[in-house]
Amino acid sequence: MMKFWRENVYAAGALLLLRLYIGWMWLEAGWHKMTGGFDAAGFLTRAVENPVADKATGAAVYPTYTAFIEHFALPNVKLINFLIPVGEFLIGLGLILGALTTAAAFFGLMLNFLFLFAGTVSTNPWMVLLGALIFIGGANAGAFGLDRWLMPILRAGWKKIFRRKDTLGGGTTDAAPKAV
């Protein structure tokens, strides 16, 4: 099944439809936040005051995340107010265009999990499920998108950057030694 999802042209078509749907959701959410005066301070304050708690004990389920919000996110709420809308918009743009698709799906998943850890369910589980399918699709998820042309260029640049000079012979070698 994984081979089909990562290599088959029909799976690439299904991934295109998923990308467009999830990408539009991210793009629209980011755009509304960028143009609508988004302020995360209230959301973050409520997440600290009312963390996700175990029903039996009342103990916070994600105490380290609550501490992160309290000690980093809230004091830097201006940074968060920039990162969330721009991040959502760029995730959506990447998914719609099929550009850096796997990275966009990864960051979409991470953002959804951050929202879930703060106690917001909403559409996040649905977006996690569909985002995971796109992420698992890997390169095939961007086959009908800009990744078709972008990824070979990035791979060539990556190889060029990590090619190093052989210290003894002065020639160029790959970073990993080759078996003889």
- Low-confidence segments, given as residue ranges, are none
Number of strands: 2
- How would you classify the helix and strand content by structural class? mainly alpha
- Strand content bin: under 5%
Mass-distribution shape: globular
Taken together, the total number of domains comes to: 1
Q: Estimate percent helicity.
A: 55-70%
Give the H and E element order: HHHHHHHHEE
Alpha carbon gap, first and last residue: 35 Å
Task: Describe the main β-sheet briefly.
Answer: 2 strands, antiparallel
Membrane topology: Multi-pass membrane protein
Protein name: DoxX family protein
Keywords: Membrane, Transmembrane, Transmembrane helix
Main location: membrane
List keywords for this structure.
mainly alpha; 180 residues; 67% helix; globular; transmembrane helix; two-stranded antiparallel sheet; transmembrane; DoxX
Question: Would you give an account of this structure?
Answer:
It is built from eight helices and two strands, in the order H-H-H-H-H-H-H-H-E-E. It is an all-alpha fold and 180 residues long. It has one domain (2-173). It has a two-stranded antiparallel ribbon.
